[in-house]
Amino acid sequence: MSKNGLISQLEATKKAWGIFKDNQEKEWGLAGIDTGIHHLNLSIGGWLPGKLTTVAGRSGHGKTAVLTPIFDAGRRIVNGKKASFLFFTWEMASNIIVDRHVCHRAGVTMSFLTQGAKLLQGGLLEKVKEAYSDSKSLDVTYQQSSTDITAVRNISLEFIDQCKERSKIEGISIQPVIVIDYIGMAKFEGSGLRTYGIGDFMNGLKQMASQTGCSVLTLAQINRGADDKAVPQKQDLSDSQSIENASDNLILLHRPEYNQILIVKDPESGDYIDSKDKLILRVWKSRDYGLSDNLVDCTIRHFRIKSPDHNYDTKYWELYESEEFWLKHFKLDKSTIALKMA
Prior knowledge:
The chain has 342 residues and is of the alpha/beta class. The protein has one domain (31-314): 3-Layer(aba) Sandwich (Rossmann fold). Helix content is 37%, strand content 20%. The chain has helices at residues 9-25, 38-44, 67-74, 94-106, 110-115, 122-135, 149-170, 194-212, 240-246, 323-329, 334-341; strands at residues 52-57, 81-89, 140-143, 173-181, 215-221, 249-254, 263-265, 272-274, 278-286, 292-299, 304-306. β4, α8 (194-212) and β5 (215-221) form a beta-alpha-beta unit. The relative contact order is 0.16. The model has no long low-confidence stretch (mean pLDDT 88).
């Protein structure tokens, strides 16, 4: 790279070729870091360096619930890689995030954990105690006050440097993931239109991701008018254009059950099924992986999200180590590949 930041076509090609060769030679696995949600992994490739992902939804539809399995999976080392999270939690206190993790691990509801705590005893009480102990190992750092892009950038850059140092010390690759809940609470300078301010904030996040190689996850609100729709559209997203333009991946979440819609269409079979404990994960934009509709199981009371094909404790990440899994995922077989090569 030259002093003025210009990159030649030769340099760009060498870098792209190096990444391709690495993908060919490394062990089978997910391209990025496990997000904790199997369908999300396949839709965006996991947490990838330089990528900004926005997850949007109405209140009660699972927008912050997805963070529970995401944080739970982050500490898992797979193929020498893991994630570490810096969580700008402007809407929810850090102890509430811990309580959600306990619900997720112990299989209790938030209501029971708070109002029914004195009733806990025996094996269930032990599960809860173990879950609180387990939460200590979540690789999450919380920040609850700074909401302007300058503060976010400065704190994030310090965190990214810490992840680099940890990678050297621990001998593994630690992917820094910056999480913001939620983008509508961001502050911006000047007296211009809010949309421009949000656009500047999002562009600043994207620029930081591109420059440092961190991953960014922002949560966003969907407008109330989407409540009457079977599935929200991207234009229902608050400040939709500025958020969409900056995001590499844009994912809308919708729980029909929450809006008392009793059936939902399965995008795989085309059949209408019971909407109870179902979540639509709609990928409206993905620069690398394309668009998709996914129907997943979502036990919101326990903050659990999983593939309908899996059990809660299925080690789905082990599937990624198998050539057979990827052949099935791409709807290929070895004989077809051999014919194409010939």
